[in-house]
Design a protein that fits this description.
87 residues; mainly alpha
């Protein structure tokens, strides 16, 4: 991601994603993830907890990368649509 795209992505995340917290499906999914994580962690030893944390962090990083690429694709699509409107 170039600097401009990264700047736009950061801006959108900070200033245009507020509605996600009003989304009932997002809230339910977040709660479900939290409950399931707690359930899985019960009875785990420290080494297993560390491995689980590393796994969850890797999954989170993977989704972040996917979201960045989706954002870039959306920007390209917006540019293509803008070019069609101006043509």
């Amino acid at each position: 991601m170039n600097d401009l795209t990264k700047c736009l992505y950061d801006f959108a995340c900070k200033n245009r994603m507020g509605s996600i917290y009003d989304d009932q499906e997002y809230e339910e999914t977040s709660h479900s993830v939290e409950l399931q994580t707690e359930k899985v962690q019960r009875g785990m030893n420290e080494e297993q907890l560390l491995e689980l944390r590393l796994l969850l962090e890797s999954i989170s990083a993977q989704y972040s990368i996917e979201n960045e690429h989706l954002f870039q694709a959306a920007l390209r699509l917006a540019g293509e649509l803008n070019a069609l409107v101006r043509a």
